[in-house]
Amino acid sequence: MAILSTLVFAVAAGWAISSSPGWPRVRSSFFDLPTVAESFPAILAGLWLNIRVLVVAEVLILVLGLGIAALRTLRGPVWFPVRALATGYVDLFRGLPLIICLYLVGFGLPGLRLTGVPNDPVVLGGIALVLVYAAYVAEVFRAGIESVHPSQRAAARSIGLTHAQTMRIVVLPQAVRRVLPPLLNDFVALQKDCGLISVLGAVDAVRAAQIAAAKDFNFTPYVVAGLLFVVLAVPCARLADAAARRLARREGAA
Amino acid sequence: MPARTKLTVTAVAILGCLLAAACAPAAQNNIQPPLPAGSPIPGQGNCTPAKLPTLKANTFTFGTDEPVYEPWFVKDDPTSGNGFESAVAYAIAAKIGYQHGQVAWSRVSFNAAIQPGPKKFDADLNEFSITADRRKAADFSAPYYDVTQAVITVKSYPAASAHSVAGLRGVKIGAQVGSTSYDAVQNVIKPSQQVAVYNSNDDAKQALANGQIQALVVDLPTAFEITGASEVPNSVIVGQLQTTSGQSEQFGAVLDKNSPLTSCVSAAVNVLRSDGTLAKLALDWLNTQANAPMLH
Questions:
Q1: Rounded to an integer, what distance in angstroms lies between the CA atom of residue B252 and that of residue B130?
Q2: In this predicted model, what pLDDT tens digit does every residue of B64-96 receive, in sequence order?
Q3: Which chain B residues are closer than 8 Å to A113 by Cβ?
Q4: Smallest Cα–Cα separation from B152: which of B128, B185, B194, B114?
């Protein structure tokens, strides 16, 4: 029944689109097979850059994000300056639009002409991505850490564990498990935002598509790039589902 | 099949039809008969403000990007008539018979200018180079300017001493996305390093000033503007690039595919070329005196 109704709906929608007066032009502008073949190798080469940036940036983001979250959850008046600094970092980089951060880091840093400052747009773009995304991820981790009931912390301290040991052995394992779905969500968002480093001159999948699109005044390369990103995101979505299910089982059993 | 599911099928089918009806084509009363064959004469017959099926009746709407740059437009103001393309636009409109006040401008990004849907302009002037592939998606007017691409760098960079295309091959080169400058880098210089591609020439100029790229390829009038006005400090022109085909690259106005206006606009451009107006406007607004060596 579900299949039949889906089919009827799909046929009706398909007919509505393909009988519209602009369809022949939309088809040749967005779904042109020769253009697909022509632009595919360059877009794929661009996507490989996206994937490399994604992997390196994600590792750095997780480390930095976890560090900031740990600093933000320090207790006691002694740690106020550290907490304030970590809070300030999160406020700044979560509020700063990524594209502006990219411009400031990507064109501002090398403009200083200091020795040792990288000049590669990929490295500079990666730095900007890490700065912004670490702020988001830090908040996700903090939510996880604070979701662990204070009684567990108190119990851990009462059997003689230090603060660091309590965090490492008791709090973080539970916190990280709980925030795995939102972390994967941020990961998928990062997958797509990696392409923004192209404003600094790097040629990623979207930029490769843009170059091909401008050459022939044809938008098909964008569709190709878009579908490749979807293909990239699907495994992550299934992984997030699986993680959520596993978490539900564990929490239910506990 | 139970009655309930039958009902569902009917409901889905009705919904589908409703959806189709909602997306059904609008009344097609806006399609104008095409102009008769043969080149029209601007200001006569169907090539007059009263007869042309423009976006807004009795007004010719030109499109261009935002921001726009010198020497094509002055101070990002296309309505001033200052700058080469602004002047050409008003000259085209005047040739057809539009008064100065009957010319409107709409700001259109590159992608909005070339997308297949309804356009916000009658003709778009924004240094669009005419190519056969692009003609499949849009109409071009007759060419109003022959352009060459030029390489610029900073005096202290190694590229400043290059005297040939081969001398630029190992240099880190930048270009604006969507530009034929980018094509020229790939096809003429064939650099050994990945070309850095920027959203705008502003970004590319910053990268050149920073040393993130060692050379930048832009069209020759823009090259004169960047070096002459010191938009990049100490920048110099290395030289011009020859096209691979041997045919010169030409700018044309972009119009909607199969636009009924194309033949009339083209006719106006052709008249402006043969009566010397285009050459005079180029002399007024583009630096045609200074010389840049041809790179081989």
A1: 6
A2: 998 888 899 999 999 999 999 999 999 999 999
A3: 210-211
A4: B185
